[in-house]
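Support reply, case 0932

Customer input (verbatim):
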Amino acid sequence: MRAAVLHETGQDKLEVLDDVEALGFGPGKVRIRVRATGLCHSDVSAMSGVLPQPAPFVPGHEGAGEIIEVGEGVRGLAPGDRALICWLPACGTCPACERGETHLCLAGFLNAGTPNFRRPGGDVFGFAGTGTFTEEVVVDAGCAVPIPDDVPFDVAALIGCGVTTGLGAAINTADVAAGSSVAVIGCGGVGVSAIQGARLKGAAQIVADDPVAARREAALGFGATEAVAPEELTDAKQRITGGEGFDYVFEVVGRSATARTAYEATRRGGTLCVVGAGAMDDHLRLNMFELFFDEKRILPSLYGGGDVLRSYERAIALWRAGRIDLERMITHRVRLGEINEALEQMRTGTALRTCIEI
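Our regenerated output:
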């Protein structure tokens, strides 16, 4: 079986190998033939060590495909079913799940410490307990979410992470108010999804902030009313809000420097929504006086901040109704053997989202 493997954390390229075997099939498990997977910035962050992940590992967590085998005890799934892969399944019984905060369930994270694959040299992990840069993957039944026949695999893959994360940040976590002003810092796939979410919620002004001109141009096509380079954000804040600051600012980069910029761009009493996944040793500095005096709400948003299964259903319904555009988010397509080209597209910002067709 073919899979793209990172041998050591810190390497910037993957090796596509033919000697990888999916592990763990048995009771409560399903085997999925991956058909499409998106390249998310979190994959690159795991490769560089920003996000913790044992190595060697197969990156990828934003995927969809066909179920080819189900283990004993699995209900509601059968070979031939089409499914997207949920990298953060809810166990349904932990305190977070019982509170209705299923996106905070830790069961999925615990899977990341168990090898998903094997090759002659030893065990190989799957990123975030999945690992979708491969032809086949074995996951817990809760990770396989059935999708309707009219949803293409590439669209379903996007819903599996980036779209759910960005839409949910605007709709669930921040709950953007109609008529408000919004700024989104970082306009890749997740940032553009946050822009679409803010548009759906009725924001009057949506400023897209990104250093890459192509991404700024793309953001305008997804609902941004203005697109600026980072050095132009202060001017946009002055023109649009009279210097007061935006009602909502979304940080979708995952760095303390941009989070600090986002804080300063937020009005007093406004909301800073932190969406980007950053490093454990990258600290955001706030002084206690400004924290008290400005009364700005700082809201982290993990995976869209809501029940992921309902979020998937909502995204599909909005896509069917033409309220969100998912196909145009895929600006590049590659085959698995071209995965390093996709990584370069991600790092240079030339791609909004790259779909790896397997």
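We compared this against your earlier run and they match. Two observations from our side: Residues 150 and 315 are 13 Å apart (CA to CA). The chain has twelve helices and 19 strands. Please reopen the case if you see a mismatch on your end.
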